[in-house]
Amino acid sequence: MKFHPHAGQKDVLVVIADSDINASSADGVVTELEKTIEGGSRKMVVDLSRLEDVSSYGMGVLLRLQQKVGKHGGEVKLAGVKPAVAKMFKLLRIESMFASYVNLDSAVGAFGAKT
After folding, report:
1. In-domain check, residue 49
2. pLDDT band for position 113 (cuts 50, 70, 90)
3. Residue 19: phi, psi to the nearest 5?
4. What SS3 state is found at 49?
């Protein structure tokens, strides 16, 4: 996982999930993301388009990010959710906790036009 401000909307933080979200791949990144949230980041998009599935640990990471951002009045949106991942969200009954968009640009655009 890695993250960066969106090129067109600097106030939106884009998180690229480029491998399975597990303890070894995510802990350091999640700690850094939590610091950015504490520092004022309130708009986050997690791009899941490169993942075929997400483990229970990965779901927990996403929920934790949503709760932390939500606690500060922000929101985490998801982009590029594949069918198997969407099915997991539905099985866990957490699909309503995240707004999900077809691609990264749609998710970022849903925050409104700010640069």
Report:
1. yes
2. low
3. -155, 175
4. coil
